[in-house]
Amino acid sequence: MKYITGFASGFMNLFQTGGKTFITWMSTIIPVVLLLLVLMNTIISFLGEERMEKLAKASSRNPITRYMILPFLAAFMLGNPMSFSLGRFMPEFYKPSYYAALAQFNHTSNGVFPHINPGELFIWLGIAQGVQKLGLNTMDLAVRYLLVGLVMNFIGGWVTDFTTAYVCKTSGVILSKEVKLSVKEQGETDAA
């Protein structure tokens, strides 16, 4: 009977801890993500879809801006998961690669910029605690992790380009490498 009550108590404790975590998120992470969503949509509305499309078109021209600069800016300014929403302005062909580079960057930058991925901060803090016990500086590790991650994320994004090209070729799917114009401009183009 002792084991059954211990199991039941532990089981209920799991849900109580989950409830406390949820309440913490309601007062910390969720409002931040919501406000970032509002900010990003406000900026896009203010600048206009056309300018965002031009930025995406310019960014998609070479792999360095596509898989190093744009993911860094998106992650730094919007954090995870909002940074993925900038991918909607990328051409269809580059969306998988952008996602691959950005998904990795959201993890490898957590030591220097903890606001990017607060949901996984516990992983970084666990590693940092071990480094601190060794008497080493955690910022040195964080910067190295960020720099190595930036290079590896770029490589991952670029390799995904080749993978996407191979899958398209073998399946006969054609993905555009051009940014789709806004509905207004498409109508004008079709009429011409």
TrEMBL record:
Q: Name one Pfam family in it.
A: EII-GUT
One biological process GO term for this chain?
A: phosphoenolpyruvate-dependent sugar phosphotransferase system
A GO CC term? membrane
UniProt cross-references to InterPro entries, sorted A to Z:
PTS_IID_sorb
- Name of the protein described by the UniProt record: PTS glucitol/sorbitol transporter subunit IIC
Organism of derivation: Loigolactobacillus backii
